[in-house]
Amino acid sequence: MSDSGDPQDYTPKSATRFGGPGHQTTPPAMLNSATRLDSRGQRSARFRKRSWMILIAAAPLLFAAIRSLSGGDAIGMGTNIGLFALYAFSVFLIRQGGEAEDAYLDRTYASPPALPRKLLGSLGLGVATALTGLFGWDIGIVQSIGLGVLAAGASVATFGFDPMKAKGEISLSGVTPQMVEDAIDEAEERLEGIDRAAADIADRPLRDRLGKITARGRDILRRIEEDPSDLRRARKFLKVYLDGALEATRKYARSQHDLGDSDMYLKFRSLLDDMQQTFDQQHEKLLTNDRIDLDVEIDVLAERLERETVLR
Amino acid sequence: MNARLVRTLAFVALMGIVFAASCATFVRADTGAPVTMETAP
Fold first, then answer.
1. A73-123, pLDDT tens digit by residue?
2. Is A132 in the B-facing interface, judged by CB distances under 8 Å?
3. Residue B21 is nearest to which of A129, A154, A160, comparing CB atoms?
4. Interchain contact A67–B (C-beta under 8 A)
């Protein structure tokens, strides 16, 4: 044997047996989030599939309408089509409710949906079934109502209830979920306003730069949603910057053709440069959780936004 | 009984109810009278 030791001691990493000595497993926390995402995706796919299948089950009503028409029964045809339309509307409501629930589950802070669509859809399915029993099947009012109640109950059990409560925790800094939601909604509106105004700007590089700025703005919003303790500081940033950017973009878009390629273009471009830089800085600060206050920089830019000719 | 099984059973029941009601409507749409042993050919 040589001095290099027993060759039996050496095991290449690729040869480590699963669960054997030296095997490192992925931390369960990392796997859990992947599994959760996966199960949620599976759940919403099942939801969509099931809502379509109800429409397929109600499809004989359409054939019944054709038969009624061929038998010369116009009222019967109208009734059958109306019943099918009621089923379709209920399924539409349930699907909308499912989408609203997905959006609610995706967000850290969320209000419940304005309308309990899944519940209303289930009620619609119950009513549609009761009316089909009464007018189509002709089984009498009591049995029809019983059938409708059964269908509505089965639908509630299948698709579940809508989220009813606001979601999110009150953080230590006294920031409520409602405050976070309001601030983010307001900022989103301004970002959309900038996007709309930017679409009117003829100069492509300026448009692209504004697109980058709004994308960075959305990153900042996501960051605030994840950690709302910075909301108070960030709110000033969002208000001053987004208002300023929106105003400047609108005014530039309005007057770009009057002034042509003048001084204003250069000023607007350099303003956008500054804005992009400060957005990046703010995002960086939020990411690193750095407590250095950006208020001074915000004030400087606010002053500049006031001063620049674009705003006059 | 787990929640998923309950949802699946409820869905099967819902499909059954809706399908039965709409099929019965289809069958009755032809004759305009209830299908019974007496009226069946």
1. 888 899 999 999 999 999 999 999 998 888 888 777 777 788 899 999 999
2. yes
3. A129
4. yes
How many CB pairs below 8 A link A and B?
Answer: 88
Separation of alpha carbons A104 and A160, rounded Å: 15
The C-alpha angle with vertex A262 and arms to A257 and A267, in degrees rounded to 5, equals 105
| ipTM of the prediction greater than 0.90, yes or no | no
State the pLDDT at residue A79: 93
Looking at residues B12-32, what average pLDDT do you find? 87
Our CA-based measurement puts residue B28 at a distance from the nearest CA of chain A, in whole angstroms, of 7
For residue A207, how many C-alpha atoms fall within 13 Å in the half-sphere facing its CB? 11
Contact A53 B13 (CB under 8 A): no
Of A212, A216, A208, A214, nearest to A194 by C-alpha is A214
- Whether the Cβ atoms of residue B18 and residue A127 lie closer than 8 Å to each other: no
Residue A140, by phi and psi: left (phi above 0), alpha (psi -120 to 50) or beta? left
- What pLDDT digit, counting tens, does each position of A15-58 carry? 666 566 665 555 555 555 555 556 777 778 888 889 899 999 99
Confidence of residue A233 (pLDDT cuts 50, 70, 90): low
Residue in chain B nearest A158 by alpha carbon: B7
- Cα(B12)–Cα(B6) distance, rounded to whole angstroms? 10
Residue A147's closest chain B neighbor by CA?
Answer: B17
Chain B neighbors of A158, CB-CB under 8 A: 7, 10-11, 14
Tokens of B30: 């032809």
B15–A57: do the CB atoms touch at under 8 Å?
Answer: yes
